[in-house]
Amino acid sequence: MEERADEGPSIEARAALLLQLRRAGVRDLSIMRAFETIPRELFAPHRFRDLAARDMSLPIGCGQTMPAAAALARRLEALRIEPHHRVLEVGTGSGFGAAVLSRLAREVVTIERYETLAIEARQRLAELGCANVEALFGDGLAADETRGYFDRIILHMSFHEQPPHAVMAALAPGGAAIFGRYAPPASADARPSERLALSHRDGEALWTTSDLWPCRLGAALNGRAKAL
Prior knowledge:
The protein is of the alpha/beta class.
């Protein structure tokens, strides 16, 4: 029986994606295994499923995109997620990042501001049996402190300064958060560039932030939205 064209990438295509992650510098075996076990095509729009095994960003609903596999993998590797960690993800998107995180951490809370994306992501995560993921519709930049502390926070967006205190306050001492940050433009007519930043909370009021590498995450948006 011939394989249907809409069934998604073949085993060979998925293996090629893992090779692309290696070429991009990803070395963490737990992240490689997570990408190997999560079918990326399940999270891609139907018309783009044949491209899911390529290392490229893909458009999804509400004007958002699924990040390129290597870009996501490198961000997760920089966070150094451990199996006992509790992780907060702001910007669920398709849900693929949360699915990968479910293989790396003890518990994942992911928040999406677009209700349609949140509903679809929740369905996909349930289909995969990601029981340690709680997918919420809400404003992740105004995180409810009653959800407790997180060992790691990943924000799929860029800020002109630091992320809002409301979300960074949810980081436990000793924890780390990764996000994009706009750098000042080189000239008056140039567009500001984006750089990935990694912040560690060394104590109750002591933070250190490291500049990592260029990124393209897009501006942070506040509030909730039904759809675009």
